[in-house]
Specification:
single chain, about 160 residues, alpha+beta, about 30% helix, globular
Length: about 160
């Protein structure tokens, strides 16, 4: 229902900005990154929200890592959802594998398997949940750097 006088191109607290798509093969990882780029472009151009260059790069990295892991370890397609909530993009990947990934301890000598470490380090929040079928992993990336130029993921205590 449209509210009289409300500009639908402007963000609204009561309207969600989101997109979802299933991905099946390893070739779909590039398509998942393309979806993230397109989504962030719409967030900026259609919905008028600030999206920093840093956020664009980080969201694509997070999408790539989470979809890659889902495709590598789950026997069926995964579902990627991107949603703007509270000044951040929530990147959520559902897959049918019930085992939750285990972040490994930092080891500069280890070759590979650093993706989850990186995702946790660059995101505002990171959550993993088992579902009735499979699991759901959600990482939130802040959309805009603050007014003094600090990067969106940094927190001051």
């Amino acid at each position: 229902m449209d509210t009289p006088g409300k500009n639908e191109s402007q963000p609204s607290a009561d309207r969600s900005v989101a997109v979802s798509a299933p991905f099946q093969g390893s070739e779909d990882i590039a398509a998942a990154r393309d979806l993230a780029r397109s989504f962030l472009s719409d967030v900026r151009l259609v919905h008028g929200m600030a999206v920093s260059a840093r956020a664009e790069v980080i969201v694509q990295l997070v999408v790539s890592e989470l979809v890659t892991n889902a495709r590598k370890y789950a026997p069926s397609p995964c579902l990627l959802t991107l949603e703007v909530r509270e000044g951040a993009v929530e990147v959520t990947v559902w897959d049918s594998e019930p085992c939750l990934p285990v972040p490994q301890a930092s080891d500069p000598g280890r070759v590979g398997q650093h993706g989850l470490e990186i995702v946790v380090a660059v995101c505002r929040s990171f959550e993993m949940h088992r579902e009735p079928v499979g699991k759901r992993i959600t990482a939130a990336v802040v959309l805009a750097d603050d007014a003094v130029g600090d990067q969106g993921g940094d927190q001051v205590c």
